Amino acid sequence: MTTPGATPEPKIQILDLAVAYSDGTESLQGITMDIYAHQINVLFGPAGGGKSTLLRTLNRLNDQADVALQRGQILLDGEDILERDYDVIQLRRRVGIVFARPVPLPMSIYENVVYGLRLAGVKDKAQLDAAVERTLKQAVLWDEIADRLGDSAYALSGGQQQRLCLARSLALQPEVIMLDEPTSGLDPISTFKVEQTLQNLKKDYTILIVPHSVQQAARIADWAAFFLQGQLVEWGQGRQVFTAPKNRRTEEYITGRFG
Amino acid sequence: MAHSDQPLSPTPQLSAAPGSGKRGTLAETLISRAIQVTGISTVVLVLLIFVFLIREGLPAFVQVPLADLLSARWYPIEDYFGLLPLIAGSLIITVGAAVIALPLGVATAIFIAEIVPDWVRDILKPMVEILAGIPSVVIGFVGMLVIVPLFRVAFDTPTGLTAFTGIVLLAWMALPTVVSVVEDVLDTVPRTYRDAGLALGMTRWQTIAKIVVPAGKSGILTALMLGVGRAIGETMTVMMVTGNAPRIPSGPLDIFRPARTMTATIAAEMGEVAQGSTHYHVLFAVGLTLFVITFAINLAAAAVVFRRTKRAERMLS
Amino acid sequence: MSRQLSQRIAFTLITLVAGLVILPIMAIIVYIAIEGLGAISWSFLTEMPRDGMKAGGLLPAIVGTLALTIGTAIVAVPIGMGGAIYLSEYAKDNASTRAIRIAIINLAGIPSVVYGLFGLGLFVIFLNFGTSIVAGSLTLGIMTLPVIISTAEEALRAVPQSFRLVSTSLGGTRWQTIRRVVLPQALPGIITGIILGIERAAGETAPILFTAAAFFLPQLPNSVFDQTMALPYHLFVISTQVPGMPLQIQYGTALVLLTFVLSLNIIATLIRRHYRQKRVW
Predict the structure, then answer these.
(1) In chain A, is it the N or the C terminus that has fewer CB atoms within a 10 Å radius of its CB?
(2) A155: how many CB neighbours lie within 10 A of its CB?
(3) Cα(B112)–Cα(A91) distance, rounded to whole angstroms?
(4) pTM for this one?
(5) Which residue among C18, C78, C250 places its CB closest to the CB of B108?
(6) Cβ under 8 Å to C: B residues 189-228
(7) Interface pTM, i.e. ipTM
(8) Domain spanning B63-69+81-316: which superfamily?
């Protein structure tokens, strides 16, 4: 876990961010917080609190959704990514995302991993091979499937598929990796593997995760932010938030009085 | 793991990649534009069709007095351009075909969607689609050789070429449209409705008749309209089996006498008229009338469909 | 009357009706096959018609129909696919999209003979292509558009949204996503739609009556600006316009046309079935 006391360096600064969809569903209201580099940053809270919206805003996947209102700033290394002519393609390569349900693309394992690189115009076979080996190792999948990279990605188990999706994001060597309930459909062993992987990855990456349970949040959080109905209720070091929450609603949620 | 010294920023290759420009590459922009243009071209085409029908059809309304167009006599060689018999012919045959096709189509759709097991369904569905693929000239041909002699004897008419012959064949030809639309709609009626019916102790038939079919009502209406649209536009079959006599029926039994539709008139006569003659323009005017009628029918059908999707979207969100 | 009995009666009635609808489909095909098979021979398929079409073969009509079919595809496929991709991947839910949808619905509903009039007015007369393969192909192509657009759009929409999201999240542009993920997955469905659309065009008579078809022309077209014989129109001509036509030639012609059209139909069905089973999602 992180060494308490040392002030981490913010990778992303979110300033007074508000997002609303035009059909009035899940939205964010005046969010201000930092995402710290080389830390596991956890967003937690009941469903519909705005966590997924925040993730999708951070790499502008929401551009294609029906967003009625977007206000505030998101600074990635000090640059506002919400600027109209910010290069979103480059942004998405720097800020990767893994979704709740594993979504292998309908192609081979190998092609899945190098998909982002191919889009970026990488053609060199050696470079692609190296990326596959490196990321599958990072995602603790290499030993299981190294001999069948040409198989369809759909031949893998659910847990393997999810780690494949993680490897696919890692192939672009992003600076930030966002994971939206990456273990929600997985068995305890696969879940443990994914969590272990995250601990390894934070040396190199900034990790932002929406865990699928409070327990998981407490297990892995260096920093934790509690979201409720579009508002950031509490944000602080993981140990503090989960052992001595400052806000009554945070405490009630952690102790299971509502959910 | 030996990757802790990996660079954290994207590799140089990546920053030079396609799509790294502010709004994508030139190729991307060109392709997107081209795709947009093709999308919009459909609207342009409809307008173009309308414009050309008006351009060639409008002179008819100038050259022939409206009272003559609305008269009961179509005899172009002597400049009688009364459209009423043609409109009446189209109307009778279309309405007749719809009246037959709707119940048959709904029953067939219920049969395929609700009664038979899945493997039978997998055979029957493509078969109905095959019917949609049989060229109308082939159906007209078989109609002439098989149905027409049959009806000549059955209804004791001199030729067997009657409005009713056209009605029967058209109804059959409109069925694939009706069946597939109704079947789709029955398919979208949620499983839970059916289960609820059965759980209440209803028989399968009661569930179908009292729950499933009423739930698909708007779809059945759409099917009716699309079927009518299909029937009114059918050309070759009606031309081959209805006898093509332009007359206004005087009673209901007249469906057992020959009739002539607007479509058959255009098809039969356009090849022989001088371009630019009054007859030529009148035939275009008939086409324009058909265009407007089918436009209205399809617009109405579309309105039903749009309303249905909106409601479905609301229920899903 | 017991509820079980009423169910039995209703199901029996419905089965009878369905039989009344479905059995003639088989009957008509079998009937034409039996009656027409006697006329089919190598020379029937490869020779020019002779003696006022009462003898000889169908060659110019077959070639003409093939030419019109290919021409239709050349016109309809690019526009149809572009339109479908636009509606499925680009269009927002706004007034102009609704206008396009209404336009397509109406294109689908316009009677084929009205397409013939339009083709006559625009291609034959206004653009001065004359009665020709070009004019006929353009007319049939436009008529085929709605079929291709709606089936292709359906195939594109069936590709899971999550694939698009993943591709976008990995830095894919919209077109990269379409080309690498969406199109390959939708392709079997799109091809099915194209074949079904072309099948319909191949069997059409009314649109080519005044745009392409020749009554009797015992020679092969030299260029796309020539008029041509075509199977559907030829069948119409020999069955209604030529007295004393041997029945067997009529049935034979119907059989050739039906075989051509139905094989397209069956190919389309097989492609769809094959890929539906292979699909992973």
Answers:
(1) C
(2) 14
(3) 51
(4) 0.88
(5) C18
(6) 203-206, 209, 226
(7) 0.92
(8) MetI-like (1.10.3720.10)
